[in-house]
Amino acid sequence: MIGRTFFLWSFATLTLYISQTLAALLPSGVIFPLYIYPGTGCTGWTPVTTAIQSNKVLQFYIVINPNSGPGGAPGSKPDTNYQACIAALRTAGSAVQNVKILGYVATGFGARSSTDVNSDIDTYSQWAASYRPDGIFFDEGATAANLLPTYQAFSARVHQDFGTSFIILNPGTTPTSNYFAIADIIVTFEGFYNDFSSSSLVIGSATPSQKQAVILHDGPGQAPFQLVNELASVLAVGASFITDFPNAIAYSNMPTGWTTFLGNLISAQA
């Protein structure tokens, strides 16, 4: 009888574990420009690592930015804290594959030298597998049709270097619709919390909401559920981020309402 009871308990436990592991990720996730230095023992990133482990139904897009890009000379490696802590982020999401790590690359709205952009892409791709990003976050993205070929080339370079990879483009507004074909997600609004409204986004068949992300700074300490619900459920954007910190330091600090934001994001999609 004890053996049968133990078997049933073990089977139930295993079933619960499998169901949690295989649970589908919610369609609206989190994008975090993580420009915080990780520190010794990854203490600077602990709230993020914990969130990835604790919120297995959320997809996390984590942008790492050692030094306005990979830092150092072409082909250089990040310091040992970055190496260990990027690996820790990946491990935190390994059970359900709910984290994608993106390397920051500035593009100067299309004005930065292609040689420099490609060098940054190449450098990230040459990092060791344990801490190599899953793709690239192109910041300062262009929006005009005449610059589309430049970004098509950047996108092709990422896929050439990384193979299977993920690309996020950040123009901070809606670009010409053809840009949606070269990126997995586009940040179509990055700006002040009070400036955002649903009319800020252009949503249609060529500009689907699932491929859009919203980043808000200078918000309240606790973003209201109504806004999170609008982003995740009504507008159904692919990812969002809200911080109470001002623009100049918005991404170098943990948002005060980080945990509440994540809980609301899950509740909005229940």
Q: What brief labels describe this structure?
A:
single chain; 270 residues; alpha/beta; eight-stranded parallel β-barrel; 8 strands; 17% strand
Quick summary of this structure?
The protein has 270 residues and is an alpha/beta fold. The chain is 33% helix and 17% strand. Strands 1-2-3-4-5-6-7-8 form an eight-stranded parallel β-barrel, surrounded by four helices.
Q: Into which percent range does the helicity of residues fall?
A: 25-40%
- DSSP helical segment count: 7
Whole-number radius of gyration?
19 Å
State the end-to-end distance.
40 Å
User: Given the helix and strand composition, which structural class is it?
Assistant: alpha/beta
Q: Low-confidence spans: pLDDT under 50, at least 5 residues?
A: 4-22
On the 0 to 100 scale, the average pLDDT is 93
Strand content: 15-25%
Number of strands: 8
State the shape: globular
Main sheet record? 8 strands, parallel, barrel
Strand arrangement, major sheet:
1-2-3-4-5-6-7-8
